[in-house]
Amino acid sequence: MLSLMAVVQKELLVLLRDRAGLLVLFVMPAVLVVVITLVQENVLKTMGAGDTEILLINQDDGALGRRMTDALAAARVYGSSGRWTAA
């Protein structure tokens, strides 16, 4: 166990001394998220995509299913087009 702690301590010291490594470790993922978000947003605008339609099938008919359906409706995540029953 002591040797494991020594290895962890050594690796942390090496990482803290490596500024470029810290930059890649923390900044690059944040930049990547921003770039991908902007690209996807531009693609959706170019394609003229409107609202995304989803189908909610509540086969539970219990309290949890009703609460989830009500919460989604209150958040205006989807529009209800009636009640569908399974065949």
Provide a brief overview of the structure.
This protein is an all-alpha fold and 87 residues long. It contains three helices and no strands.
Please characterize this protein's 3D structure.
The chain has 87 residues and is an all-alpha fold. Helix content is 66%, strand content 0%.
Descriptors:
87 residues; mainly alpha; 0% strand
Radius of gyration: 24 Å
Uncertain regions: pLDDT < 50 for 5+ in a row? Answer: none
Order of helices and strands: HHH
Q: What's the N-to-C terminus distance?
A: 60 Å
Tell me how many strands there are: 0
Helix content: 55-70%
> Pairing-aware structural class of the strands and helices?
mainly alpha
Write the layout of secondary structure elements.
Blueprint: H1 2-17, H2 19-47, H3 63-74
